[in-house]
Amino acid sequence: MAKKLLIANRGEIACRIISSCKKLGLQTVAVYSEADAHAMHVELADEAVLVGPPPARESYLRVDAILDAARRTGADLVHPGYGFLAENADFAQAVMDAGLGWVGPSPASIIDMGDKERAREIARLAGVPILPGSQRFALGQTEAVMDAAQQVGYPLLVKAAAGGGGIGMRRVDEATQLLSVVEATQSMAGKAFGDSSVYLERYVAAARHIEVQVFGFGDGQGVHLYDRDCSVQRRFQKIIEEAPAPGVPEAVRAQLYGAALALVAQQRYSGAGTVEFIYDSERQQAYFLEMNTRIQVEHPTTEMVTGVDLVAWQILQALGELAPVSQDAIALNGHAVECRLYAERPEKNFLPSPGLIETLAWPMKQEGLRVDTGVRAGDRVTPYYDPLVAKLIAHGIDRSEAIARLRLALEGLTVEGLSTNAEFLHRVLSDADFSAGGVTTAYVGHFLEVQKQRSRKAG
Fold first, then answer.
1. Which residue numbers delimit the ATP-grasp domain (predicted)?
2. N or C terminus: which one in the chain shows less Cβ crowding within 10 Å?
């Protein structure tokens, strides 16, 4: 039995992993940058090791420093959380080569699913429907890009082949825009991922973002833990998620589960993963988008409706101690909605708003409410990392009750010292279109435009 787990991450997810480790009787090791010396995850862990200056590339992305921290503290396991090195196959392999337990899928799966073009081909071979798209293009392949765009059709998306999480994705409506967008995306992708290649994919106008939580056992077998709707997004990044997705025909839902498990079987996937789909709500057809080979930010919604501690499952599997789980043993109970509280300015195109958290008071404890955070009053949201303050998750017997509880939680929240998106989240949760269910990924842009028009009329 391992005795100590190192968390190669920070903030909310590090605190979340520590919580599961305490329940399992595992000691924890935190790593931190100089900017996080007094952070909540550092205080909660049994031990903490400084790994470098504030910039992530000099601290949280330093494989050598993290492995040295594991060696110095005698850690047995490494959990990467999400972001940073979570989907870095070289890091996973380095952890295993160092004789440590890796909490996650195999490096081979990370490589296969991390390369978005390769992932599409694997999905196709597994019988999973994919959107029309192109091969990857390197810098300078101008003529080939233009030809491919004609085959894919407009509007389309230019996507970084090594990207994910909505990063490196831009819409093109007509041919005159294509080359400039391709060049800009390639430049950004090269800096962000070390790989400047891009590919083209058809854009679905009435698109919903629906994903299936899976857990594979490494032998071709796996289970799904139902689905989530993540269509409320800004800049292609999620801000409100819910489980299960509302208004999806049961036949389509069954197809999503079957496709996700087919991919698990084809990969002989091991551990927690999320298979993401674009759902064309007009045609009632779903297409493979990508597979995230890690725990998701929105995993608490799944935990709330299934009663499963996904992080504990990850750790137990890494230890070889996860008892076999059958699909029939995973029951769906009620509905859960999560909102991400960010230090940002929605009125300024969601510009990050770092600063000192002078006051932070969570809503009073209520039935069905969960708050996952990595900060306290007196902490500072820095410009170095994602400006997530907390995730508020509400569970109810149905969707209406979950939404009502989440609105009540936001009303009972107090944050002073920096700007947040709390008011914006409350307005969305109170909006008739959102309450009706089934909004598309274009919802936030439309919602903001309606709000502006109302402000003009009121003024």
1. 120-319
2. C
**Is there a single domain that holds both residue 159 and residue 233?**
no
Question: Which structural domain range is residue 317 located in?
Answer: 207-458
Three-class HEC string of 38-83 = CCHHHHHCCEEEEEECCCHHHCCCCHHHHHHHHHHHCCCEEECCCC
Active site residue 294: yes
The residue type of 175 is A
Query: Residues 370-383: what's their mean pLDDT?
Result: 97
Q: From CA 452, how far away is CA 212, in angstroms rounded?
A: 35
Residues 51-102: pLDDT tens digits? 999 999 999 999 999 999 999 999 999 999 999 999 999 999 999 999 999 9
Task: Clarify whether residues 359 and 241 are in a common domain.
Answer: yes
pLDDT in tens, 173-214: 999 999 999 999 998 888 888 888 999 988 888 899 999 999
The one catalytic residue among 294, 340, 399, 405: 294
Count of structural domains, the chain: 3
31 inside domain: yes
Chain position carrying tokens 């292609």: 236
Show the tokens assigned to 237.
């990044």
Helix axis angle for 310-318 and 11-24, nearest 10°, is: 60
